[in-house]
Amino acid sequence: MSGKPRLHYVNARGRMEPIRWLLAAAGVEVYGDLLFQQVPMVEIDGMKMVQTRAILSYIAGKYNLYGKDLKERALIDMYVEGLADLNELITSNFFQPADKKEEHLATVMDKATTRYFPVYEKVLKGHGQDFLVGNKLSRADVQLLEIILLVEESKPDILAKFPLLQSFKAKTSNIPNIKKFLQPGSQRKLPIQEKDIPRLMQIFH
Amino acid sequence: MSGKPRLVYINGRGRMEPIRWLLAAAGVEFEEKFVETKEQLEKLVKDGDLLFHQLPMVEIDGMKMVQTRAILSYIAGKYNLYGKDLKERALIDMYVEGITDLMQMVMMLPFSPAEAKAKNLASIEEKATKRYFPVFEKVLKQHGQDFLVGNRFSWADVQLLEVILAVEEKIPAVLSGFPQLQAFKTKMSNVPTIKKFLQPGSARKPPPDDNYVATVMSIFNLN
Q: In this protein, which residues make up the domain named GST N-terminal (chain B) (predicted)?
């Protein structure tokens, strides 16, 4: 065994994507694996880990992306859980019936701009630093960038009213590990396509 | 200000109950403020007390914490219920996440439409006895210790006891195929802080009834 973490999932974004992002941000090389499992599973450090949140927490802790103490962890956890809720809302759009999709998407975009993005804009404004917590890159920053890019795929101008999130996006995208992940040929997965939905429905429902 | 954590939620179990359990298990006294109307919730949002406009919210150590998992992780870390290192944390996290998935099904049951209730209950029984309980039965059997992780009381033990009791309220014989879990239930129920929490007069909330469901629907505008 090589020692590199090994990801088991379908060859798509889904629940593995935040894990790919965080490993990439930490500069960790992985084996991609097309083997299907019912939930994300990551072989790492002799463990077969399941449960997305548990996996993300472990990676963040191991690679020092989880703040310096309990209180910074608490902030990171709150920010990350909010982003996870927004992520869930967005990905659930793919599985809405065709006649409900547009309305649902509008609701999601509204939540993004009135409930979630204002929080992070305000955090950045409040301390004036480049990163959300403790003036240092953490999993919260990685996840925020991931979600910003995801939302922009549906609505490219979503950050129009959020100048600090715009500069956050630019700065964070230029962090070398992340910049590399954003380039073609990385393990980042493409947006879910319409044509994939029947296959994914079959696997997950 | 008393210095005790202050829990802000509806007067019922819902998403706050695991937090009540964990604080109680850690021997931490806390206060509660019950939200009874939509207007009260709206005021909390307007006053900027709720980061994502949602409950639960816990005032603790100068923070207004939201997001159930974030709150539970903080409490577990603060009161040494989160294992001794990253790897024990990882196990605890995995177990807790699995339990949370099952607990979510139980929590949502009273909100099912009448015609779906029997089906959802059957689904809970199936998942509990085929997917979740076997995992913990096996963990306990393999190491032969009283606690799930690291031979020491942790968040995972508290949450497992909570879900066992919650499922048993609906399916009394659910542990019949799980002797290790039966012994675990007895032992954990006798941990002094937990024993106290299980007695009448504690902060533990009763099972959800129709009144609770109606309150939730009206406060969160789910009608």
A: 3-83
pLDDT value of position A204: 64
Would you place residue A56 in the very low, low, confident or very high pLDDT band (cuts 50, 70, 90)?
A: very high
Q: What is the ipTM of this complex?
A: 0.93
Residues 6+ apart with CB under 8 A from A76: A60, A66, A67, A132, A133, A138, A139, A140
Closest by Cβ to A119, choosing from B52, B73, B93: B52
Dist CA A106 CA B53 (whole Å) = 19
Percent of chain A's residues with pLDDT above 90 = 62
Token pair listed for B71: 């709150």
CA distance A3 to A205: 33
Per-window interface: B 164-193 vs A, CB < 8 A:
none
User: pLDDT value at position B70?
Assistant: 98
CB A13 within 8 A of CB A191: yes
Q: Of A81, A114, A117, which to mutate for an interface test with B (greatest number of B Cβ within 10 Å)?
A: A81
Which tokens sit at A10?
Answer: 């379908």
- Residue A204 phi, psi (nearest 5): -100, -10
Q: What is the mean pLDDT of residues B109-120?
A: 94
pTM (predicted TM-score): 0.93
How far is the alpha carbon of A83 from chain B, nearest alpha carbon, in Å?
Answer: 10
Token pair for residue A15?
Answer: 């629940």
